[in-house]
Protein 1
Amino acid sequence: MPADTRAHESAAHAHDAPAHEAAARAALDAFLDALNSRDLTAWARTLHYPHVRVHEGEVTVWEDEAGYVERSAPELALLVASGWSRSGWESVELSQSSPDQVHALVRFARYDAAGERTGSFDSVYVLTRRSERWGVLARIGFPAA
């Protein structure tokens, strides 16, 4: 199924979902949009802190937005240097939810400037609502099989 079709289906599901799930999904999309914009400050604002990432057997914790921007700049530069142009959701399943926390099982792909898929990754994103704002609190990821 083409990614565009999945995106429309996801949008339709979000329309029928409880309000907290729709808000969490919007925060998840904002996270990816900010990454694709390469605006580290905007990306950092889509998160809640302390922010946790479990990746390749390591745990990274960022205490605040400024630290996230500073420590993510070299990682983003490496990603761009690898030929990455953008990322996109291949699938999103909201597996558990409450009015203040949603767990999303996602698969995202990376694409080069020609639109060729260069990798696919499965992750769990923990989205939380704090002070009436939804954001990504934690990401747990690994390469897809």
Protein 2
Amino acid sequence: MDLEEKVTLFNKIVMESQEKKIRDQLHTFEASLNDILEDHKREERRKAAIEVETERENVRKKSNKEVAQLQLQLQRDLGRQQQQLKEDVFRQVRERLEDFMKTPDYVHLLELQMRHAISVAGGEDLVLYVDPVDADKVEALQKRIGHDISVSSRPFIGGSRGVVQSRKLLIDQSFLTRLEEERANFSFDRSKEEIQ
């Protein structure tokens, strides 16, 4: 083999060796890049999952807040409607009381209330009162129950009141007091229970 052939063979061997090294290095570099790419993909998926979960949580919170605000508004609206209905109910009750007060049954009720007050007083000094609107009924009631009756200086819609001075006892059977008690205790929930 001459020198030229030797140089060519040497070049060939060196070139093949270098090509193999380069291929190995490229393969190693490519594998390293693939590992980096896979790590990057995993990290991006993890970040995306966290972002999606965070956004999902934000949407859930926003939705809950909107639902809570809607419920609050509905409760306010319901409260206003119930208040309006309550006012209508008590206005109608007041009108019916006024109609009732024009009947003989009302006079009979006053008589029963006053007899009850006399019974509660048990012979002690008792002052009986009627509402100023019932002043025209005083004389007839006094005859029926055999007791003096005064006309109150303060209106109380109807019914009667009695005062036992010695015991400082008020026997309040006025419509005003009953209406105020009912208004204070009135509840639509309670009304539903009482209906059932």
Protein 3
Amino acid sequence: MAPLVAPLHPDPTLLGMLFLMSWALGTGSSPLSGSNLAICVRYRIAVRDMLRWNLPYAVLGWGCCGLVLALHAGSV
């Protein structure tokens, strides 16, 4: 993804922070991530239940990440 936005000359620290936030939210909340699939198989949990349980984490994380990015934009 970084080579695609390189012509726009983004701030490398901000871009790295965005990638890290996206990875953290995707891995923790997606029922198709490897860690969540392993948990579902090991403990015989329905994927639908795992998605429903992780939804508050995803919404809260999305809000916190948005707040951090908004604070960064306000300080620049």
